[in-house]
């Protein structure tokens, strides 16, 4: 085994841990925030729906890379200092939660209106109707697109490298640069090939799960 492999593998492994942690935080935060927002978008209040719609359209419409730069460079100007990990997590959560909100809204509104009316006739207030009647049915409809969205969000974590976060991609790029400077050879193909394999291994099971859920729940 070439001498450069072990130190590079150790360094890239640190970046992989950061990528996995960032993906976990972003996915959990996006699902929680997006589910709440998507549910609130079905309220009769025009003000509530309008405010959330602005949030969804803004963060869905902006490229994630622009959002990351905005969080990382603009928040410190406003007196809010954030490190690269927090900035990346916030930026990805803004994009992810906006997309989750749209999925949840569509799933909730796809449940027959009679279900909500029947629950209301039994005296269920809106929160209990949502919790016990609507959301359990909407979850079945929302699961396949949500899993696909999770795959997309995991892939988008690689963009955190643009603000300097030492994720797996940034660690790989730095390793290539160091090898080029020290020995004149980049070894870019095996290093980036390993990164490709890692993302493939992470995302393939989720993609297969999404397809299976779509078939089962159809």
From TrEMBL:
Superkingdom per UniProt: Bacteria
PROSITE patterns given in the database record: ABC_TM1
Localization in the cell: Cell membrane
Molecular function terms, GO-annotated: transmembrane transporter activity
Stored CDD domains: TM_PBP2
Kinase listed as a keyword: no
Domain ABC transmembrane type-1 span(s) in chain numbering: 16-210
Annotated SUPFAM superfamilies: MetI-like
Cellular component terms per the entry's GO annotation: ATP-binding cassette (ABC) transporter complex
Entry's transmembrane regions: 20-46, 58-79, 189-209
Topological category with respect to the lipid bilayer: Multi-pass membrane protein
Alphabetical keyword list: Amino-acid transport, Cell membrane, Membrane, Transmembrane, Transmembrane helix, Transport
Chief location of this protein within or outside the cell: membrane
InterPro entries per the UniProt record, alphabetical: AA_ABC_transptr_permease_3TM, ArtM/GltK/GlnP/TcyL/YhdX-like, MetI-like, MetI-like_sf
GO BP, one annotated term: amino acid transport
Family: Belongs to the binding-protein-dependent transport system permease family. HisMQ subfamily.
Protein name: Amino acid ABC transporter membrane protein 2 (PAAT family)
Species, as recorded: Actinophytocola oryzae
Lineage, uppermost ranks: Bacteria, Bacillati, Actinomycetota, Actinomycetes, Pseudonocardiales
């Amino acid at each position: 085994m070439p001498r450069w492999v072990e130190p590079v593998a150790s360094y890239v492994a640190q970046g992989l841990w950061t990528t996995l942690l960032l993906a976990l935080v972003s996915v959990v935060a996006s699902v929680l925030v997006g589910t709440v927002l998507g549910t609130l978008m079905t309220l009769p209040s025009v003000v509530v729906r309008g405010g959330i719609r602005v949030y969804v359209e803004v963060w869905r419409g902006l490229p994630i890379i622009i959002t990351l730069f905005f969080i990382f460079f603009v928040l410190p100007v406003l007196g809010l200092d954030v490190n690269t990990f927090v900035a990346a997590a916030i930026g990805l959560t803004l994009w992810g939660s906006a997309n989750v909100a749209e999925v949840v809204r569509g799933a909730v509104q796809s449940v027959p209106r009679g279900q909500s009316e029947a629950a209301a006739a039994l005296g269920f207030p809106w929160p209990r109707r949502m919790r016990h009647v609507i959301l359990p049915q909407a979850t079945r409809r929302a699961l396949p697109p949500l899993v696909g969205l999770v795959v997309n969000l995991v892939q988008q974590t690689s963009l955190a490298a643009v603000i300097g976060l030492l994720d797996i991609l940034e660690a790989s790029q730095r390793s290539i640069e160091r090898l080029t400077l020290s020995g004149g050879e980049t070894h870019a193909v095996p290093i980036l090939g390993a990164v490709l394999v890692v993302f493939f291994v992470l995302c393939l099971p989720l993609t297969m799960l999404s397809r299976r859920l779509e078939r089962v729940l159809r």
